[in-house]
Every structure is written in structure tokens, then in C-alpha cells.
Design brief:
five-stranded antiparallel beta sheet, 30 strands, 2% helix, globular
Length: 436
């Protein structure tokens, strides 16, 4: 999970979470964030087509209970707990990293015991402008895209990473996040790590009039860090280099696939071609192989505004509110993906009770679940629910095959998914668990 391309915040927001990591560390109290603007508010072919699936759901709001299967306020690891509002920065299988709104320091819940020796970024409250990356063990680093700084987690007993430095205490078994940027470090635009392949990709910062995106790929995070600290050193080169026409807006990764969203709305994908996770064909005349960035032609001309991915799935939202999904959930069969072939993506239509199609404004993807925010403030979910990540309050449903609206939420503004959890930002009063 990474908060890249975060939508703008409006007025008072409250972060709630459903699900928990493997160590059960996502329960408890929470905090507000406020921008102070005074407003509310495996057969291979080369077909590149779009499959349409229509879903309609009617639900009666139940009385939610204060457990991991319902949405509840985000826990705060600060001491005292409510002293410093926090927002999620990165969620993994075992840990969740949170950034404090006032000090911009990073703390964690779960297995990873993380301390922040420096303030991460300067862009006010929230994770805007910060792109976190990591693996199943937790966050590995954070790129401040606005300030051009890279922060890295140095584990106890590990090799020191040096760099800009910073001071801070480290809990036993934990790590310290420090600034590793120096004068020789290249200016980066975006960063993403595919934990299944351990490959890391970065795009370079572009001049205001730049019309070509340079992307470097490395076989491991360690190789990237060695290069970043001394890019002119002998033998210190990226393992691969790509050039794409246009300007990169997002660079994200799931288990073993990278996606680049360009400012003109085009999408490129490359990586592991299994489970149709690339959204495009990779053999035949004119096809680009899995290891090279290729255009997701099924999304061509649709004006994509955001992409998200996790596990073996990816999703995209267009500027006019259409939602697209492709790949495989892994833990079960999501209904709307049933008829999707190679080079195809599913167009997901969420219907209100009156039958009208709802516009989608945001989407998040976990290891086997997806959550989408609609323009009317609703949250729709589908997929794996063994950890309560769908927030439906039903402990007996380990998988939900069809899109379902979460009855306990209202006024939802945005969403981010971790592997086993879902984070939403709502207006005051939008998260209504009881007994918390």
C-alpha cells in the first residue's frame, strides 16, 4: 500500500480501518486530520477488449460491533494515544506504518518496530506527496516527491545506510528511518517495489516541459540503494532502463507487476505475466513482451485518472468515474472477473437502488480484495474477507464474490487498501462503530 496520487483533502477528515495485520495490531482509538480550509466535504492472445459487468446490491444497515470485521477509528501508537493525529503511510502483511500529522515522524503497528529519526516531508498533515514502499515485513522507505528526499529504514544489526542522517531512538527488534539523500543522489519522481519479485523501479524527476519519462529498474532494493548513494560509482548501474513518451503521474506495483499512469491518461504495464495481471497480451504480432513496458490498450482513450494494485490484481478509475479491474484475487473468484480474457479488463458498474450507475472517485486494491468509493460517499467492496478487511461486520464470510456496499459508512472520500486491511477517510460522523 502506498498513498501515491492521493486525492486532495477537504475539511475535517476521520480515518477508519477494517481488518488487521497478521499480528492483530489494528484496533483501538483514532485521530482527526484537518486541512483547515473550512470546507466539508493461461491461454495467450492479443485481443484488447473490455468486458462489462453490472452489479446491483440492496442492503439494510446492521448494528456494527467494535471488532476487526467492522470499520473503526484508526489506532494511534503515540503516547498518549490521542496526542498526535496520524494517517496511514504503508500497510504490509505484518505491520502498518503511520505518519504523524504534526511532527511528520513515522511510527508503526505490528511486527515492525519503527522509529523515525527525521521528519518525513513537509506537506502538512496526511501522506500527500509521500510514496512509501516495502514488503511483507513492513515499510522499507519513503520518497518525498515534493521535497526530493529519500528516507530509508535501517534495521538493527544491519548494514548502516549513511546519508543525510538524523537522530532517534530504536526499539529492540526495530529500525530507524533516516534521510539517505546527498548531493550525488539523482532526483526521483516516483518509486515502487514489487515484493514478490523483489524488484524495485523508479522514475526520474522531469523538467516542467519534459516529454519523456525515464524509468530505472533494479533486481533488489539493496542494489537500488547502493546506486542511489553513488550513481557514478564503477559498476553501479540500473539493471534495466526504459524510456516512455509523456510524463509519469503514478508508478505502482503489486506482487510482481509494475504500472505507470501517464498524465495523458495512458497506462503501461510490465513484469510477471501470470494471472492476466498485465491487462494486455504479450505474444503475437506487435505485442510487447512481459518484461518491457507495454501499453494497456484496453484502457486506451479512456482518460485514466488513477491506478491501484495489490496481490495479483490491478484497478483503474477514469476521469469520468468509470472503474476497471483485471487480474486474479487468488483467494477466490471475483464475479466480475469471470469472463475476462487476456488483454481484457472488466468494466465494473455499481448500481444504486434506483438503477442508476454510480460514478467511482477512488479505488484501493489489497492482496485479494478491492474497495471503491462512489461519488455519493459510499464504499463498495469485493473479494477476500478472512481478516475482516471488507468491513461488513460478518465474521462468517471469508470471501465475497459480488460487489457489496458497506452499510456502516457514509460520506467516504477516499480509500487505500493494505494486504489484509482497508483504510477509508470520511467526514466527521461517517464511521459509526459502536462501543469503541
Amino acid at each position: 500500500m502506498s498513498n501515491s496520487a492521493e486525492p486532495p483533502r477537504r475539511g475535517l477528515e476521520f480515518c477508519c480501518v477494517a481488518g488487521f495485520n497478521a499480528f492483530g495490531q489494528l484496533g483501538g482509538c483514532g485521530g482527526y486530520t484537518d486541512d483547515n480550509d473550512g470546507k466539508d466535504d493461461d491461454n495467450i492472445d492479443n485481443n484488447n477488449t473490455t468486458t462489462t459487468t453490472t452489479i446491483t446490491t440492496t442492503t439494510t444497515p446492521p448494528t456494527p460491533s467494535p471488532n476487526q470485521h467492522t470499520f473503526r477509528p484508526l489506532p494511534n501508537p503515540s503516547s498518549p494515544p490521542d496526542s498526535e493525529p496520524v494517517t496511514p503511510l504503508f500497510a504490509s502483511w505484518s505491520s502498518t506504518a503511520l505518519v504523524a500529522c504534526s511532527t511528520r515522524r513515522v511510527r508503526s503497528l505490528g511486527q515492525q518496530k519503527l522509529s523515525s529519526g527525521v521528519s518525513v516531508g513537509t506537506d502538512g498533515c496526511g501522506a500527500g506527496g509521500l510514496e512509501a514502499f516495502g514488503d511483507h515485513g513492513g515499510v522499507r522507505g519513503v520518497l518525498d516527491t515534493a521535497g526530493g528526499r529519500l528516507y530509508w529504514v535501517s534495521e538493527i544489526g544491519g548494514v548502516g545506510v549513511g546519508g543525510g542522517g538524523g537522530s532517534g531512538s530504536i526499539e529492540e527488534g526495530g529500525g530507524l528511518m533516516i534521510d539517505v539523500t546527498d548531493e550525488a543522489s539523482p532526483a526521483l519522481g516516483h518509486i515502487a517495489l514489487a515484493p514478490g519479485s523483489e524488484r524495485l523501479a523508479v522514475s526520474f524527476a522531469q523538467a516542467p516541459g519534459g516529454k519523456l519519462t525515464h524509468i530505472a529498474e533494479f533486481t533488489s532494493a539493496e542494489n537500488f540503494l547502493t546506486w542511489f548513494k553513488d550513481p557514478s560509482g564503477e559498476g553501479k548501474y540500473p539493471d534495466r532502463h526504459f524510456m516512455l513518451p509523456g510524463r509519469a503521474k503514478q508508478l505502482v506495483a503489486n506482487t510482481a507487476t509494475f504500472l505507470v499512469l501517464m498524465e495523458d491518461g495512458g497506462v503501461f504495464s510490465w513484469g510477471d505475466g501470470r494471472f492476466r495481471t498485465l491487462g494486455r497480451g504479450i505474444v503475437g504480432e506487435g505485442a510487447v513482451g512481459a518484461g518491457e513496458p507495454g501499453v494497456v490498450e484496453a484502457l486506451g482513450g479512456l482518460g485514466i485518472a488513477k491506478v491501484a494494485c495489490g496481490g495479483w490484481m490491478s484497478a483503474a478509475v477514469s476521469g469520468d468515474g468509470a472503474l476497471f479491474l483485471w487480474g486474479r484475487a487468488g483467494v477466490g473468484a471475483i464475479g466480475c472477473l469471470g469472463g475476462v480474457g487476456v488483454g481484457e479488463v472488466a468494466l465494473v458498474e455499481l448500481l444504486a437502488e434506483g438503477g442508476e450507475v454510480l460514478d467511482v472517485v477512488d479505488v484501493g486494491v489489497g492482496d485479494g480484495h478491492v474497495a471503491a468509493v462512489t461519488a455519493d460517499g459510499g464504499l463498495w467492496v469485493v473479494g477476500g474477507n478472512c481478516n475482516g478487511q471488507l468491513g461488513l461486520g460478518d465474521e462468517g464470510r471469508e470471501f465475497v464474490a459480488e460487489w457489496t456496499v458497506v452499510p456502516a459508512l457514509r460520506g467516504v472520500r477516499r480509500v487505500v487498501c493494505g494486504p489484509l486491511a482497508t483504510f477509508v477517510w470520511v467526514g466527521e460522523g461517517g464511521c459509526v462503530p459502536t462501543g469503541v
